[in-house]
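ok, trying the design again with the full structure, not the truncated one.
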């Protein structure tokens, strides 16, 4: 390993102080785990994109346990700058991204280990990962575009699986996963219905993606939004629901998904509300629904998505809300926590 490599890194660790107005993150300098394990690689990070999950964890709302004062972040892209002496598939200079669930390599592993929860995340300028836990990135994308692939990208990819061209998908919200799902759905020839609580956001997205037109539903001004979706689909319901609301929306989502359709559960924005789930079992039986939980995906899923992006030459500049410096992580997390973004917020190094 070269002698001129860094021995420390800068990383944003959680303060775990949830008092009003208190900082949620702290920028620290810490030692890198060197020398490298024989099968590990050292990655110089060029961009990290943030997700609602990051803001939720930073504000103490994650429904699963997290390690104290962990490094935030799931989505990162960078280049390999050093490799262990038994690394077989990667080389210095390769463009890579870690997978979000580092225990999920093939999709058949029984356990899981989530970045920023069970282990440190990727909001740092250098990362060390075993080569099995990273994948190569599309050559035609810049670092900002690449940084949205591992969490938002793979989650959307996994959520849309199994729906052929010409079918209808309802995508909830205008956050990172939602906008990535919109891009992939349109590239796959799917009819898109988009829901949001903001007419302004819906209007902006429909102007941005005019052809073919996107149909929209405002669930705040139309509390019976599931009935509006049924009207848009001639009473049948959508073929696939990308469900991000959680307990307070999943029953309505099931009501406007066609019999035998798929509800991909990717989020929990509403928090736990058991009183909203009384109809869940009867509806799932009556409508013969497939309800599947989406935990991003495996390394194989990430590799498949990157292959699809390369084959179609997709780019994602049109779903990037903003690009901020790495030093602005605290403000960027708060911006997402307040739900101001459309698409992805990226921190560039």
């Amino acid at each position: 390993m070269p002698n001129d490599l860094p021995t420390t890194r800068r990383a944003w660790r959680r303060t775990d102080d949830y008092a009003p107005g208190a900082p949620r993150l702290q920028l620290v300098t810490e030692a890198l785990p060197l020398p490298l394990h024989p099968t590990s690689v050292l990655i110089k990070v060029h961009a990290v994109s943030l997700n609602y999950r990051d803001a939720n964890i930073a504000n103490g709302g994650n429904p699963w346990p997290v390690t104290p004062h962990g490094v935030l972040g799931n989505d990162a892209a960078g280049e390999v700058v050093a490799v262990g002496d038994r690394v077989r598939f990667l080389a210095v200079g390769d463009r890579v991204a870690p997978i979000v669930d580092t225990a999920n390599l093939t999709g058949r592993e029984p356990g899981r280990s989530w970045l920023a929860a069970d282990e440190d995340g990727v909001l740092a300028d250098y990362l060390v990962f075993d080569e099995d836990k990273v994948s190569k990135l599309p050559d035609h994308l810049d670092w900002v575009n690449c940084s949205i692939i591992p969490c938002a990208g793979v989650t959307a990819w996994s959520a849309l699986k199994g729906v052929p061209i010409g079918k209808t998908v309802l995508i909830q919200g205008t956050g990172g996963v939602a906008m990535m799902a919109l891009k992939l759905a349109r590239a796959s020839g799917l009819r898109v219905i988009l829901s949001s609580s903001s007419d302004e956001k819906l209007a902006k997205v429909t102007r941005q993606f005019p052809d073919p037109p996107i149909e929209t539903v405002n669930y705040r001004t139309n509390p019976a939004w599931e009935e509006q979706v049924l009207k848009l689909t001639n009473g049948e319901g959508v073929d696939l629901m990308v469900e991000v609301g959680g307990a307070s929306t999943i029953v309505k989502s099931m009501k406007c998904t066609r019999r035998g359709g798929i509800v991909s559960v990717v989020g929990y924005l509403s928090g736990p509300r058991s009183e909203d789930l009384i109809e869940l079992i009867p509806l799932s039986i009556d409508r013969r629904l497939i309800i599947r939980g989406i935990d991003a995906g495996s390394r194989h899923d990430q590799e498949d998505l990157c292959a699809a992006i390369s084959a179609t030459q997709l780019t994602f500049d049109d779903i990037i809300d903003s690009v901020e410096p790495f030093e602005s992580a605290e403000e960027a997390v708060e911006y997402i926590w307040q739900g101001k973004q459309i698409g992805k917020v990226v921190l560039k190094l």
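Keeping the full-length input from now on. Residues 135 and 195 are 32 Å apart (CA to CA).
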